[in-house]
Predict the 3D structure of the following.
Amino acid sequence: MVVDTEPDASANSPIQDASGSEPTSRKQGRAYELFAWSKKHKVIIVLATVFIFCLFEYFTLPNDGLLKLRKTNPARTALMEQRIEEAKSQGKTLKIHRTWIPLSQISPFLIHAVIVSEDGTFYEHDGVDWYEMKESVQKDIEKGRAARGGSTITQQLAKNLFLSTSKDPLRKLKELIIALRMENILSKERILELYLNEIEWGSGIYGIEAAARKYFGTSAADLTRDQAVRLAAVIPSPLKHQPNQDSRYVQRRAEIISLRMAARGY
C-alpha cells in the first residue's frame, strides 16, 4: 500500500472557515488593532484626511475670484454681507464704513503690530502655519470643540472675502485651500494690503483707514505706536472690544503685542 508522505498544505496555511475566508475572530482581531491604532493617532488621521481633501480641492478650485484680486479691490466681502444679513434679521440696517488706501499709506507701526499679533511667520509660510494648525487640531480634539485659533493672515483674509465666521470644519477646510491658492496667485504685500483694508474693526467698521478715523480721529498713515498696538489688540474680538477703551482685555493684549514688537526691534 502506498502511503502519501507529502505534507498537508493546509497545515501551514491560515485556518479558514467553510467558505474559504478568514475566521470571524481573526477579522475582529485586526479590526480591534486598527481601532486601537486610530484611537492612539487621532491627530495623524485628522491631518491626513485634511491633506487628502485639500489636495483634491486645491486643483479643482476656480481661480477667477482670486485672479481678479491682483488688480481689483473687492466692493463687498462675504463677511460684510453676513453682517448686513444679521442686522436685517434684527430689524436693523448696517451701514458699511470703509475707505480703501494702499499699503504705502498705512503706518509701519500698525503693519508690524498686526503681524506680530496675528501671524508672526507671515513672510515665511505658504499661507498656512502647519505647526500652529497641528497644535490647534490637538487642542480642539482634547477640548471637543474649537478651542484654539491658528489661522494665518492669509487664512483670515480668505474667510473674510469668500466664506463666513462659522466654525464648521468644512468651512475651515475651504479657508485653508483658498489660502494656499491665494499665496500662489498674490504677493505677500498684496495679501497684507487686502487684509488691512478688509478686516473688521467694529460694527460696520472695515479697514484700517475707517478704524483709525473712528477710534483715534486720525489717518492710518499717522497712527502712533500705542494706537497701532491697541488696534491690533482687538482684532480677535472687534465687536466686543474697542481700541480706545482701557479694558483689561485691551491693556493685556496691547502689552503683549508691544513686547513682541520690541523683541523684533520695532
Summary: The chain has a mean pLDDT of 83. The chain has one domain: 35-71+96-263.
